[in-house]
Amino acid sequence: MKTITIYLAVIMLSLNVQIGYTQDSIVVKPNSEKIENLIQLKAQIKKEEKDQLKTEVEQVNQRLEKGEITKEEAEKLKKEFAEKRALNIKNRVAIIDNKIALLERNEAVSTQSDSSDYVIRIGGSDNDETNEEFIYIGKRDRDKPKKYDRRTRSDLVFAIGFNNAIIEGENIDDSPYKLGGSGFVELGWAWKTRVFNNSNALRLKYGFSFMWNKLDIKDNKYLVEIDGNIVLEDFPTNLNKAKFRMTNLVFPVHFEFGPSKKIERDNYFRYSTDDKFKIGLGGFAGFNLQTLQKLKYKEDGRRVKDKIKNGYNTTDFVYGLSGYIAFDDVALYVKYDLSPIFKHQLIDQNNISVGLRFDMD
What we know:
Layout (H helix, E strand, L loop, with lengths): L1 H12 L3 E5 L4 E5 L1 H34 L5 H35 L2 E5 L5 E5 L12 E5 L12 E16 L15 E12 L7 E15 L4 E6 L2 E6 L4 E12 L2 E5 L3 E4 L4 E4 L4 E23 L2 E8 L7 E11 L2 E8 L11 E11 L2
Antiparallel strand pairs: 1-4, 2-3, 4-5, 6-7, 6-19, 7-8, 8-11, 8-12, 9-10, 11-15, 12-15, 13-14, 15-16, 15-17, 17-18, 18-19
């Protein structure tokens, strides 16, 4: 657990690091490719503004049908929206036309060579000209330009907190597992996709995660399997530590909703949830990869550490519910396993976790 935490700390400290290495040289670049890209961008701008106008007109028609506005008010609103979108197209296309005219007057431009400019970037790019890939290593000229509309983005997910078990017929206070010593760690990768075309009110978040759920057994007891039943028995000597850990590979899915801010630039637009509240509700399903019981004690004055892998009749297919309430990139995170820790038992034990979740988007 300590090793995992150290590695994760190094990863988190490395975020948003960008290193460039350049060898100076002069090259001559043709402008035909740049002009072609700008022409395509003009078509994108026109399509985007027309789509926005179509949505606005549909909203006006819906208000008219509900009787919220009169026919005259509806026509006035449609005219205003049409004029605004036409002006947007005119202004934005004029900027592109000026760039094309400049390139056409100069058949080639001598610039510092990007081919020998290497970039190592972790954490995305703040540059308006390059994409937002979380990790990029390579030549600067191959760092792809930003897409005009990016509906899906991905990010690193890290969570840590308290862990325990809900035991059928018992209170959490009577749990045989320590409240403070039991914990969980989650590390994964998630994609977030905007559900609606012209709104970021609802997002679908999905991905994969490795989960380590640890239970710290108290009262000098340890887990034993007897004829398929998992029971807690007294250890014959004094135990320094008795820990039980499950390692799972799961595939979480959450519906995330909350406010966002639309950021518009000349060549792209984005929805940002920075400094915004977010709520995610969903669940997860996956597989148990390994179980491990670790026992530390002294025998004849010697320190003994036993690691007993598998063989605890644990559930192979794990699934449950999870949710989070976040501000910016930090969330209060809760997950509950609907699948029992041990299968085919008279009394079920279900894992429950509460902690902090960090989405590095």
